[in-house]
Amino acid sequence: MKRIDPLFSQRFPLKWVLILAVCFSLTSSLTTVSAQKNYITVVIDPGHGGSDPGHLPTQKNLLSEKAINLIIAQKFGNYIEQNLQNVKIIYTRTDDSYPSLTDRVNKANAARADYFISIHCNANHNKHVHGTESHVHSLKEVRGVALARAFEQAFVISAGRFSRGVKDSEDREHSLQVLKYTAMNSVLVECGFLTNEQEAQYLNTIKGQEQMASSIYTAFKEHIIKSHPTIAFVKSTPNETLAKRTINGPVSGAYAIQLMSSKEPIDTSIQEFKRIGIPVERKKVNSTSAYKYQYRTPVYASQDEAKRELEKVQKSGFKDAYIIQVNR
Ligand SMILES: [Zn+2]
Asked: What is the CATH number of the domain that holds 223?
């Protein structure tokens, strides 16, 4: 979220605009080349496996990260297989084995895949920390970032989760090998914190696993339909048996719009915020990210209300703002 600082654009002179224009035209010519293909390839990477359990459960009766990752990854792949065509799926693992990170990267690069989606669960020494995250290598990767944002939005809207947003190596203050060395749009999703009791319970239920998988699927589907307009992805008789959406029913929370985040606190009375016409609240969040200050609107009681306001917020300059679920 952080680089959505409206001050950003004002600070960047024409030189940058020109460089961006060149990058944009390169991107469009690449799109033209890939548009000639009549299918896409997605590598689905269930994180960890075998001797590497990932994060361990905090209770004996719960699954370790590697097992949850594999379940969600396979459900995601199944949704694609049941409902879409012209999508080739390659798994980095389909059982409890451990391909090295280099193996995973090489497999994706050798297949000239279009997408690499790595599925993980998070952990933190603070058991209160919870929420989903979608990681990219760099926020400059336009399409990868768009997909990552779509995942986060779906986690909120389809699965009713709390989103901690899109993060890159600058945020994390380290690179992730599978994101850095894969030559395609690569996103690593963190489905929630196994160290947070409620989130761990949720991720251990079939309902939770299906909601996460169907959110990933829905966001992925919408993204590829938009990004590859010449390929027909949707089967004529789709068999969408996706996990039931929770948001239509009552939820224990409310909604707000997140505008941006920053490393250092920014005064909320600045002109960029005032222009929205909605009071902006600054919150310091307990985050592993360096961007600890989040800027949000006040809480809305319904998702519809938040959606209406989102348009207004985006029009007033925060075009990457998105809806988050918050506790009252
Ligand atoms: Zn992991």
From this structure: 3.40.630.40
